[in-house]
Design brief:
The protein has 308 residues and is of the alpha/beta class. The protein contains 13 helices and 8 strands. The protein has helices at residues 2-9, 13-21, 25-32, 38-50, 67-85, 109-126, 141-154, 169-179, 201-217, 229-241, 259-267, 283-292, 294-307; strands spanning 54-59, 93-97, 131-133, 159-163, 182-186, 221-225, 250-254, 271-278.
Length: 308
């Protein structure tokens, strides 16, 4: 029951000020967000790849209210790509983007977001890496999928994210699996109404497995976004039944969560990608991490009690 309240707090300016001002917040945030600048995150990229892991990098920030801000978000990704260019890591360090950062919610936002994301995808392809379009709340998905389809005409490696808790996702997965896309499946981290999304955890888990089976049986490249040991084991079994080799799908987990599991899966020969966010506008991202898992919230509250 705490999850929806935390998600509501993620949109509250008052809560943003309170959480940001708390002395304990920054050390806890650092567990999930290893830096605010590209110069701070590049050493993390090097360290994790040297350990046999891969990354998807996210420049955090969603509250875009002007065209100028959307251009700044685009430029932040282009700066990241420029830094990655000399590392020669190929797909070991890809990028995730939220189209809301690129102006999707503004007037004429669909065209603006497409115009902003295209040069990022082009620049990523030029250095041998890829971009995945993150899913946001259900009202944005038709636009996201349309932009995904448009980008894949020239850059077929462009990925997208689907969310198991949405009723529509099973149909989306069938379409995407047939198209051979790179698809990350997650449970979903936005507060969605009962008219469009499962509300019960058990129902969400069942939907996740059904959708994952569709992806594993299809022609695309599944990316399993989960920290749940049971779902990870199910994914491995579905991969075996589908005849997939270990490099024909991958696991993705958040930076700072179950780090030993990252290394274990990589040691077994799986592709293990660490979702690593950085940037100054960390509040919304941080609050969703608390909402997704009670242990994260307990960790934060325990730290506040200990420090004060």
């Amino acid at each position: 029951m705490l999850g929806p309240a935390i998600l509501a707090a993620s949109r509250s300016d008052k809560m943003r000020r309170i959480v940001s001002a708390a002395p304990v917040t920054k050390p806890v945030v650092n567990r999930f967000i290893p830096g605010e600048t590209v110069d701070q995150v590049i050493p993390i990229v090097v360290d994790l790849t040297e350990k046999g892991l891969e990354l998807t990098l996210d420049v955090v920030g969603e509250d875009i209210t002007t065209v100028e801000q959307s251009h700044a978000a685009r430029d932040a990704y282009l700066e990241l790509i420029e830094h990655l260019a000399g590392l020669g890591l190929g797909e070991k360090a890809e990028m995730s983007v939220k189209l809301s950062m690129f102006g999707q919610a503004l007037e004429g936002g669909h065209e603006l977001a497409l115009a902003n994301v295209r040069p990022v995808v082009e620049a990523a392809a030029a250095i041998g890496t890829t971009v995945t379009l993150d899913a946001e709340d259900h009202t944005t998905l038709d636009s996201m999928f349309a932009i995904h389809d448009e980008l894949r005409r020239d850059f077929p490696q462009t990925g997208c994210v689907i969310q198991a808790y949405l009723f529509r996702t099973e149909a989306d997965a069938r379409r995407l699996a047939a198209a051979g896309s790179r698809v990350r499946i997650v449970k979903g981290a936005y507060k969605e109404p009962a008219e469009v999304a499962y509300q019960d955890k058990a129902e969400i888990d069942k939907a996740y497995v059904r959708i994952l089976k569709t992806l594993m049986d299809g022609e695309g490249y599944p990316m399993i976004g989960s920290h749940d040991p049971r779902l990870i084991a199910i994914a491995q079994e579905l991969g075996r039944k589908a005849g997939r080799k270990l490099d024909e799908y991958e696991f993705q987990m958040l930076y700072g969560i179950r780090s030993e599991e990252h290394l274990r899966l990589a040691a077994e020969g799986h592709r293990m990608r660490v979702y690593t966010a950085y940037g100054t506008d960390w509040y919304g991202y941080f609050m969703r991490r608390l909402a997704e898992k009670p242990a994260n919230l307990l960790f934060f509250l325990r730290s506040m009690i200990t420090k004060n």
